From TrEMBL:
Pfam families, A to Z: UPF0240
Gene name as annotated: Ndufaf4
Protein name: NADH dehydrogenase [ubiquinone] 1 alpha subcomplex assembly factor 4
Origin: domain of life: Eukaryota
Chain segments annotated as coiled-coil in the UniProt record: none
Originating organism: Daphoenositta chrysoptera
InterPro entries per UniProt: NDUFAF4
GO BP terms in the entry: mitochondrial respiratory chain complex I assembly
PANTHER family: NADH DEHYDROGENASE [UBIQUINONE] 1 ALPHA SUBCOMPLEX ASSEMBLY FACTOR 4 (PTHR13338:SF4), UPF0240 PROTEIN (PTHR13338)
Amino acid sequence: DSPEIKEELLRKDDRFLTLLKDVYVESRDPPVRVKDGGGDHLPCKQEEKRLTKLGHLEALDVKKVPKGKISIVEALTLLNNHKLQPEIWTAEKIAAEYSLELKEVNSLLEFFIPFTVHEFPRETKKAIKSHKPKQLT
């Protein structure tokens, strides 16, 4: 905060400037060495992808997924297909159709079940009969 320190900081020292002008720096990059690792640093093999099988729900989901994986919409579709037609949509057919492991498809079909909506017929609904409130006397 003192003015003397500020002045000292801003003052140029001619002796140091002349010494600084005599300094010469030369820089060189080290020679590039090729490691004999047999391709350790090559880019990884890209995952093989497949087009999704979405039908009319195509706009709702991703277009490509890695092989061995399924999208959310595909999972719901195959679970629903298996639920509605289990004799046609067997675990083996689902595994082949979606490029999945049979063991994973069996687990999927065992532990994930789509919701079912039950609507009761009108005749069985019980109507609440209105009653007149009792008057207090």
